[in-house]
Design a protein that fits this description.
single chain; 373 residues; alpha/beta; Rossmann fold; 434 Repressor (Amino-terminal Domain); 2 domains; nine-stranded mixed sheet
């Protein structure tokens, strides 16, 4: 990431976090390293969050179909449709609070995933249905080995699902927020797709718009270098005063051959220990999800925080974090864990003290992203 762009990006996230803190008040922040823990019903809390302030939602709501009495909310809904309507209410808010180039991971039970995914699809582009196989570590048998196999009437559910999605934007073939943004700024700059393709050297073999046409239908995205040429071409018209940073318009997805890049995840489940949350997820899996889909300094939201594993994973990677939890005892656990983390770690989330002023200062929002004409 360009150093200047990096500082501006992190400064913007710092401002976003300050806006969020202003909504909930100073007592909400329990960490000098940018962590908030909010106690209460997460849907009510979520409705207070400012629009487009969150980079990643990584959350694990009650599964409903598992009917576990030790998990808050897992037995609250008598009918599947009631549960799905509840999830839909969250989807409405998640779409609102996510940045257009943000992402969401939502854990769910394997037998409910297809229906949960259908609920998501009205507001999000569902990109993957991840299968978490939950392998046991050597020496730990777990329930799978103890249960009576002869009593089964279907295949034993030894996996969980994770819906991975991005906010959808109507108006182009693949409902891509970036596609709509690029089309809007190109038109405001008075350029045709063909002209922008010529100016950026993004020619196509068949269509005159070349790569620009593909970008504006959401088929793919420009590289960092291509986006820099787009910005130069748009700004050279004199009709636009600024363009947002690459990190603010392109959804991050940072994987390579050294990391888990398929939709089958094999992170071992968390072994029982005194004080373990009944739905606790392995920190290695949470870190993998966060690192692949956010930049340093970004804000990660967990609406069903449990014991705070998502918050700790985010802090460990230099991200800001907001945890929402309805049960007081777990709020206390999260607060204690973050305080302990604070004592042993010193993250550098804030930009340098002296301000770094951009050549062209970004004004208020233009459509989906920060830019101006």
């Amino acid at each position: 990431m360009n150093p200047r762009r990096n500082i501006l990006h992190m400064s913007q996230r710092q401002q976003d976090f300050a806006r969020i803190e202003a909504v909930y008040g100073n007592p909400a922040r329990v960490s000098r390293q940018a962590a908030m823990v909010l106690h209460g019903d997460s849907l009510a809390l979520l409705k207070k969050l400012p629009d487009h302030s969150i980079s990643l939602v990584l959350t694990d709501p009650p599964y409903h179909s598992t009917k576990k009495a030790n998990i808050h909310g897992d037995t609250h809904f008598e009918e599947d449709d009631d549960f799905l309507a509840w999830i839909d209410a969250f989807c409405e808010q998640w779409k609102r609070v996510l940045r257009p180039n943000g992402s969401i991971f939502c854990f769910c039970a394997s037998d409910m995933c297809s229906r949960v995914e259908q609920v998501f699809s009205s507001r999000f582009n569902v990109l993957s249905q991840i299968v978490w196989t939950k392998p046991n570590e050597p020496g730990f048998d777990g329930w799978k080995q103890k249960m009576k196999k002869e009593a089964l009437r279907q295949w034993y559910a030894h996996s969980e699902r994770i819906v991975f999605a991005e906010p959808a934007c109507e108006g182009n073939l693949h409902r891509s927020p970036f596609a709509s943004f690029l089309r809007d700024v190109r038109k405001r700059a008075g350029l045709s797709a063909h002209q922008l393709a010529e100016l950026t050297g993004s020619y196509g073999r068949v269509n005159h718009g070349g790569a620009v046409s593909n970008w504006e239908t959401g088929r793919n995205i420009p590289s960092r270098e291509q986006y820099a040429r787009i910005c130069d071409a748009i700004l050279a018209t004199g009709r636009m005063k600024s363009m947002p940073a690459y990190e603010d318009v392109i959804r991050p997805f940072l994987v390579d051959a050294s990391k888990e890049f398929t939709d089958v995840w094999t992170f071992p489940s968390v072994r029982p220990y005194p004080g373990k949350h009944p739905a606790e997820k392995p920190s290695s899996m949470l870190e993998h999800a966060i690192e692949a889909t956010t930049f340093v300094g970004d804000i990660v939201l967990d609406c069903f925080a449990g014991s705070g594993s998502t918050a700790l994973a985010a802090l460990k990677l230099g991200r800001r974090t907001i945890s929402m939890e309805i049960e007081k005892r777990w709020v206390e656990v999260i607060t204690e864990r973050i305080a302990e983390f604070d004592e042993t770690c010193d993250l550098k989330l804030a930009p340098p003290e002296q301000p770094v002023r951009p050549v062209r200062r970004p004004p208020p929002q233009l459509g989906l992203f920060a830019a101006a004409g």
